[in-house]
Write a structure and sequence with these properties.
With 171 residues, the chain is mainly alpha-helical. 77% of the residues lie in helices and 0% in strands. It contains six helices and no strands. Helix 2 packs antiparallel against helix 3, helix 2 packs parallel to helix 6 and helix 3 runs antiparallel to helix 6. The longest helix is centred in the middle third of the chain and has 43 residues. It starts with 12 loop residues before the first helix and ends with a helix.
């Protein structure tokens, strides 16, 4: 006669499923990584746009004149700027989407991990930002330059303007 098989027991569920805060921390880190990746891609696209446009402009202006025969190259400079702008704007949206997702997850982490009345992560970051915003360098640079996110859209726009100017000169 065979022995009865021992009853299988499952491990406790807390060993199978990580606590909610651990899942939220992983999601937060993932969203921040996605946001950083979008920033890296945006920078690469803008840099590539500038490099290609610079090479094409160098070819156009090598003889110190813009000729009608160079019209197709002038149009290509404009198209390179348009493509760069479209991709930069797309990656800007992707960055902001992932950044906002991370902030929502961080708010939930604050709610789960910090007792009411104690400073949360958001409170500490806001306090640090307030101190930074009061510095002379911050006030001056933001007043003059605005957000650095605009730079990534300005550079391809300048390429478009340069391409259009060269196109008009080639006509």
């Amino acid at each position: 006669m065979s022995e009865p098989k021992p009853e299988r027991t499952l491990p406790p569920t807390d060993l199978l499923v990580p606590p909610q805060k651990d899942v939220l921390i992983a999601i937060y880190n993932d969203m921040r990584a996605h946001a950083r990746h979008a920033e890296t891609l945006r920078a690469a696209v803008v840099n590539f746009t500038i490099a290609v446009a610079s090479a094409l402009i160098a070819v156009i202006t090598a003889d110190n004149h813009v000729k009608a025969t160079e019209l197709p190259v002038c149009v290509v400079v404009t198209l390179v700027g348009v493509l760069g702008l479209v991709f930069a704007a797309n990656y800007d949206e992707l960055y902001h989407r992932n950044w906002r997702r991370a902030r929502v997850v961080r708010a939930e982490l604050d709610r789960l991990c910090f007792a009411p009345g104690h400073p949360t992560i958001a409170d500490l970051l806001d306090r640090a930002d307030d101190e930074h915003h009061d510095t002379q360098g911050y006030r001056y640079s933001r007043r003059v330059l605005g957000s650095t996110h605009r730079f990534w859209l300005v550079a391809p726009t300048l390429v478009i303007g340069g391409g259009l100017a060269l196109t008009v000169m080639a006509l």
